[in-house]
Amino acid sequence: MRSRILLIVEGEKTEPAILGNETHGLLSLIGADYEIVPFSNSIYELYEAYMAGEYDDIVSFLRTQKGLKLDPSILSKNAFSAVYLIFDFDPHHQKYSDDTIKELLRIFDNETELGKLYVNYPMVEAYYHLYSLPDPDFLTRSVSLNGLTGQAYKKLVNMTTCLKKNRITREDLCHIIMHNYEKARKMTNSQDALIDYHAILDTQLDIKARYNEIYVLSTFPFITLDYNFDDTMAIITGLLPT
Fold first, then answer.
1. Among 144, 32, 43, which residue's Cα sits nearest to residue 79?
2. Cβ-based burial of 70 (10 A; exposed 0-12, middle 13-18, buried ≥19)
3. Tell me: the pLDDT tens digits for 117-172?
4. What is the tens place of the pLDDT at every residue in 169-195?
5. The dihedral of CA 224, 45, 165, 80: what is its sign?
6. How far is CA 234 from CA 127, 195, 228, 240, in A?
7. Chain centroid to CA 227: how far?
8. How far is residue 169 from each of residues 154, 180, 219, measured CA to CA in Å?
9. String of b and e for 87-126 (b: at least 16 CB within 10 Å)?
10. Where are the chain's structural domains?
11. CB 95, CB 39: distance < 8 Å
12. pLDDT over 70, % of the chain
């Protein structure tokens, strides 16, 4: 019996398209059954609603939220082997605070317990923010938060990306994962195989405070590494040139 995973995402279109497309979705790399539930609001709205109630787990929370398309046969978190949350950093949100995003990473830090949070810096379109393959400048690419809006960032990425969003190949997937993986390790000065998401946030908050900018980074491709590091790396090394 294959494992089944739950993914709670911010948006209704972009995240499901990136994750679940049968031919070029990230989840095609891990071979698990899945359920994708768009929350259709920010992580800060989810945090406020979740903390205001008394819930045993994220599934019991989702079942109370009107309009969410959770399979009605799912009665508990036990239906899933792992739970992932994918949301934007969104520092301009009226409910954002440094302490809140830190607390969110603390609460949602284990996919087999309450769930594991992956933050898009600055938003989900960072997944496509590559100018070439390979793109050596991605290691230092940042974005100013001065006047940053979702529409402005989407336009920037759409104008500059080298990726064809509707025709992502498996090789493209591997490039996306490795560009972000190498950047995350550089940002945190880490030689460890697994990513330290708290250290990433600390780095982002530091340069936000000093320069009002953040590094462009898509962390949710790391679901593939966290789910099965060895198998994912075997696929990547088999497809990318050394």
1. 32
2. middle
3. 999 999 999 999 999 999 999 999 999 999 889 999 999 999 999 999 888 999 99
4. 999 999 999 999 999 999 999 888 889
5. positive
6. 21, 18, 10, 10
7. 13
8. 21, 17, 19
9. bbbbbebeeeeeebbeebbebbeebeebbbbbbbbbbbbb
10. 4-239
11. no
12. 95
Q: State both tokens at 44.
A: 């800060």
DSSP assignments along the chain, one per residue: ---EEEEEES-SSHHHHHHH-TTT-GGGGTT-EEEEEE--S-HHHHHHHHHHS--SSHHHHHTTSTT----TT--SGGG-SEEEEEEE--TTSTT--HHHHHHHHHHSEETTTTEEEEEEES-GGGGG--SSSS-GGGGG-EEE-TT--HHHHHHHHHHH----GGG--HHHHHHHHHHHHHHHHHHTT---SS--HHHHHHHHHHHHHHHSEEE-EE-GGGHHHHH-HHHHHHHHHHHS--
For residue 47, what are its two tokens?
């945090």
The two beta strands, 213-215 and 115-121, are unpaired
- Token pair of 82, please? 């792992």
How many whole angstroms separate alpha carbon 61 and alpha carbon 50?
Answer: 7
